[in-house]
């Protein structure tokens, strides 16, 4: 089909949904054109379905989704964008612009009233829909990086079981392919958030790049450094000298943490870490700690919203003659300061609270401690605060790698099993959604998201399928709880970290009992989440005719009355 046909169909869609004035915002995902409408009663579904490009339509509250297919949707979106940016109002329409604005405001007020009447769960659904709008465009990059990361981790465990550092050009290229998307996740999230809330997406990219700047300390590196420091301090407090501690490091299976750091024998402080260079700590501005946001989601999302609204506010009073210069400058400057000096310290306090709570919960006996952590873990992942748990996991692996009392064999760490249960359960829920879905694109997204969890990556499953639908994410968390309970009850431990689910099985190959245990964790977590989602999740259930339903009908009638009144006034 020629490009001019795409332009024609784009105009058809805009006209069929009530014109430009009825479109609040618009975006697209892999296969669908998504139009957020002011009044969805104005939609002419027959006209949309008459297009040769339309493969189906779907509603999510006031968002109309026109299913076009991969490749086609990008071309149509481009034409819709051009059409929305060009003002082609007739003279009569321009004269009636004030009345049109009044109608839009009234319709929008009615829409908000409908949303407010939908209850607490309706508000959650609204928030989840916004999250879906933000994360759907970036899911392909996350899926690709996740699969590449899983394959790379599996190859490294097979080809390099000792965990020694790999410096060959091949592995450097592999690391670039696998780590870039996740290390730069804040950039993707900030860009998509700013775009979703009507700001300049380029400003979102710039702010995102600033949040992951190499000039800021990496939070993951800080956690690793603190774990190493704790290890040396703990061993030193037992009366061991530096040489003895180095022997433990080299002989207790800790080489996966990198080369042992250089320690000052008197101060017992790390002078130089051969793996990471100089000691990694947060930058202190007075009492305010400042770090980077590598791998974080929530801070980038919040800052993205700040950027969008800050830009609009500055534009509202900035003289047009200097708007192009000073609006981006002030937006970027203020947003970055807010991120580093306000949200950053708050996030660090939240992380410390999560760390303290996790340590306390893990102490609960009979497997309930590991079950609770497994059930909550992916909720923590959403915030990006899970990085602080890497330090805790590292410490548990270190402690579990050393001989126990009276020379007992090393106990290993149970945190890998907790991670595995929390990850594979999200895959179970995504798989159930894929099987139940009637739309081909939903099936493809669900299956690819579930597949990525087998390699230890949950972001596609969380943000692409489970979290926007709310209940599947809850069911997956329940499945993780059962998997964590099994792991805790049987003490399913291993001597390492860093890889989970299928690649993670290699960590358990030294003990067939533990290997069977982790296989059981995978099966229980996956199947529990799958069954709960498959039998309990129902999408698009019609509301019952309660008082709320009657109120809903009244408000819809009011919207229709306002529309008729507007047309009558225009004719007069």
From TrEMBL:
A Gene Ontology molecular function term of the record: kinase activity
InterPro entries: Glu_permease_IIB (IPR036878), PTrfase_EIIB_Cys (IPR018113), PTS_EIIC (IPR003352), PTS_EIIC_1 (IPR013013), PTS_IIB_1 (IPR001996), PTS_Sugar-Specific_Components (IPR050558)
Name of the protein in its database record: Sucrose PTS system IIBC component
Topology versus the membrane: Multi-pass membrane protein
Ranges annotated as spanning the membrane: 134-156, 168-190, 197-216, 286-310, 322-346, 366-385, 473-492, 512-537
Record-linked Pfam families: PTS_EIIB, PTS_EIIC
GO biological process: phosphoenolpyruvate-dependent sugar phosphotransferase system; trehalose transport
CDD domains: PTS_IIB_glc
PROSITE patterns in the cross-refs: PTS_EIIB_TYPE_1, PTS_EIIB_TYPE_1_CYS, PTS_EIIC_TYPE_1
SUPFAM superfamilies in alphabetical order: Glucose permease domain IIB
Principal location class: membrane
Domain PTS EIIB type-1 span(s) in chain numbering: 7-90
Top-level taxonomy: Bacteria, Bacillati, Mycoplasmatota, Mollicutes, Entomoplasmatales
Entry's Gene Ontology cellular component terms: plasma membrane
